Amino acid sequence: MMNAEPIMNARTGSTLLPMIIIGTLFFVFGFVTWLNGSLIPFLKIVCELNEFQALFVTLAFYIAYTFMALPAAMVLRKIGFKTGMVAGLGVMAIGALLFIPAAKFTTYGLFLFALFVLGAGLTLLQTASNPYIVCIGPRESAAMRISIMGLVNKFAGVIVPLLFTAWILTGMDQFSNESLSALSASLRAEKLAELSSRLVTPYILMAAVLILLMFFVHFSPLAELDLHDEVDSQPSNKLGVLQFPQLILGTLALFLYVGVEVIAGDTIGLYGRKLGVENFGSLTSYTMSFMVVGYIVGVFCIPKYLSQANALVLSAVSGLVFVCGVIFTSSTDSSISQILLAWIGVPAVPNSVFFLALMGFANALVWPAIWPLALQGLGKYTSIGSALLIMGIAGGALLPLIYGQVAHVTNNSQMAYWVMLPSYAFILFYAVKGHRLKNW
C-alpha cells in the first residue's frame, strides 16, 4: 500500500507506546472539536446570528471531512501514516492562526473558513490515527482500544468548555440581548468587537501547541503501519471497496451517529441559553462527562462482557430512550439533575437539558464499535475504507443544520430534537443486521 520502512503490527511490537502517542493526538481532536459547543453561542452573540445561522459553525467544520477524506487517503498512501499525522497538525496550526484576523475583523465568513481549515487538518490526522488504533492489536479488542482513545478525547471535551467559559465568557451580562439592544449601533459594534477580540490569545496558544506537537510526533519512535500482510479473503471485484456492505452501511451509520453526537454536544449550549440556564457556555461539559462514563464502560466491558455489536445495540436503544426524554420532559423543572448531581456540587439543569447531556452516554460506544465492524476483512482496502468512514463525519455538518432549521421554523428547540430518532433507528439496524452483511 505504501513505501514504509519500519513495520508496526500486533505481532512485532508493543501497543503501549503508540497508544500513548496517539492518545495525545486524540486529546487534540477532542479539544479542537468540542470547542465548537462553546463557540456556537459565542459567535451567535458576536456576529448577531439566528439559531440556524449559528449552526453553520458545525457545517464549516465537519464538511471538511467530506472534501478532504479521500485526498487524505491518497496523501497517506504517498507519505505514510506518521508523516500524515505531522502534516495534519501543521494544517490545524494554520487554521488556528486564521482565527486571529477573523476575531480582529469580527467577520463570520472568516471564522467559518478558519473552522474549515481546522477540520481539514483534523481529517488528515484522523484518517491516519483511527486505523492505526484498530490495526496495532487484535481486532476483537479494537473497540476497547478506541474506547481508551475516546476517554482521552472526551476528557478534553469536558475541560475545554470550562476553560472557554472561565477565560472568554466572563462578564457576559453586558452582552445580553437586552443590554445590547439598548445601545446605539456604533456602541453595539464596539462592544461586540471587544468581545470578539477575546479569542485572539487562546488561538495563538492553540497554534503554538499544535506546532510543538508536530515536532513531538515527527521525532517520536512511532513506527509505520504496514498493511501488506492483512488477509483479504474477498474475491477480486471491480467495485473495489464498494463491494463491502459492512463498510458502506457502516459509513452511513457513522454519518448519522456523528450528526446526533454533534447535535447533543454542540446545541446544548444554544438550547440552555434559550431556557435561561446561567452556565450555558459550559453545558457541553455535561454531555462530554456522560460520554466519559460510557467510554469507561467500553474499556472495562469490551470484549470480556460485551461484544462490539451488543455495545452498539445498547447505544442505539439508549439513544432512542434519551431523545424521548429530551422531547417529553420538563424544560423548567430540574429535579432529576438535582437528585443525581447536587451531591457532587454540579449546578442543576432542566430535565430536558439533562436528558440531552445523557445522550453523551448513549453515543460513547458507537464510534468504537462501528470502526472495527466496518473495517473487518477489508485487507488492502483498509486505508480507503478508513477514508470513507472519515467522510461519514460530514453528518456533523448536515444534521445539526436540519435541527437548527426545524428549531428556527417551528420556534420550538425542544421538539426539534425528534430529528435524531431516525438516526438511532438505523444505528440499531446496523448493530443487529447491517454489520453481518458480507456481500450485496
Structural features, described:
The chain has 440 residues and is mostly helical. The protein has a single domain (16-224, 242-436), classed as MFS general substrate transporter like domains (Growth Hormone, Chain: A). It has 20 helices and no strands. It has helices at 16-34, 36-46, 51-54, 56-79, 81-105, 108-135, 142-167, 177-181, 185-196, 200-218, 245-266, 268-274, 283-301, 308-328, 335-341, 351-364, 366-375, 382-391, 395-410, 421-432. α4 (56-79) runs antiparallel to α19 (395-410) and α6 (108-135) runs antiparallel to α18 (382-391). The longest helix is centred in the N-terminal third of the chain and has 28 residues, at 108-135. The chain is globular, with a radius of gyration of 21 Å. The relative contact order is 0.16.
Draw up the topology in text.
Blueprint: H1 16-34, H2 36-46, H3 51-54, H4 56-79, H5 81-105, H6 108-135, H7 142-167, H8 177-181, H9 185-196, H10 200-218, H11 245-266, H12 268-274, H13 283-301, H14 308-328, H15 335-341, H16 351-364, H17 366-375, H18 382-391, H19 395-410, H20 421-432
Helix pairs in contact: 1-6, 1-7, 2-12, 4-5, 4-6, 4-18, 4-19, 5-6, 5-10, 6-7, 6-18, 7-13, 7-17, 11-16, 11-17, 11-18, 11-19, 11-20, 13-16, 14-16, 14-17, 14-20
By CATH, the topology is: Growth Hormone, Chain: A
Helix and strand element order = HHHHHHHHHHHHHHHHHHHH
The percent of residues in helical segments reads over 70%
Alpha carbon gyration radius: 21 Å
> CATH homologous superfamily - what is it?
MFS general substrate transporter like domains
For this structure, the quaternary state is single chain
Low-confidence stretches: 1-13, 228-234
Structure class = mainly alpha
CATH level-1 class:
Mainly Alpha
Number of helices: 20
Ends apart, CA distance between termini: 26 Å
What would you say the CATH architecture is?
Up-down Bundle
